[in-house]
Design goal:
The protein has about 220 residues and is an alpha/beta fold. About 50% of the residues lie in helices and about 15% in strands. The structure holds 2'-deoxycytidine-5'-monophosphate. The site of 2'-deoxycytidine-5'-monophosphate has 14 residues, from helix 2, helix 4 and helix 8.
Amino acid sequence: MDKFIQIAIDGPAAAGKSTIAKIMAQKLGYVYVDTGAMYRAITWASIHHDVDLDNEKAIMALLSETRISLAPGGKVSVNNVDVTEQIREPDVTANVSKIATYESIREALKARQIALADAANVIMDGRDIGTHVLPDADFKFFMVADPKVRAQRRHEENRSRGIASDLVSLEADIKKRDEMDANRKHAPLKQANDAILIDTSALSIHEVVDKMVGFVLK
Ligand code: DC
């Protein structure tokens, strides 16, 4: 079997990973895999089914019966129900980092992510892609931006989606999520030794895409 190309993009919340990854996937003709959406999908399903969010075993049991699909256009489905908008709602965002600390959930989602990378050229974004999921990825990027810039971008994104948004609490939430993601025991948010650091604070989307595509096509 031919080996497919793997591009890993990691970084903290709202650094621009998914926006950039989507555009790059389109330019390169790769499949975009939003692993954060998978964590969000199981978080949404747990809330939807009234599963105790402190009960890792119960969430794991639910995950094993839950089909999460990521369609090329960005549509996210859970057992064929479209949850694209719901997984961005504040109740999911507030709880997803907690669910992402559970080792059994991480291992199960990692297996699904590897299966996707075994089937096509992928550009995959998340927190642990370059370090754990695809440690041999052909290209690894670690994308960062100033927390204030990230909060402002997420604020605008929320408003354009019609989601209620408050800039001050957004910045606090982003920092809290970063801290949980970076300090969890299993597969924390961390730059891989061989990842290229991209600071997007002062760059336009266009500039970031050009820079990263430049590395890939070099
Ligand atoms: O990228 P995002 O904000 O949609 O991710 C949601 C949460 O999922 C994030 O707080 C941490 C977790 N996550 C993770 O732990 N590992 C990944 N590969 C992707 C996301």
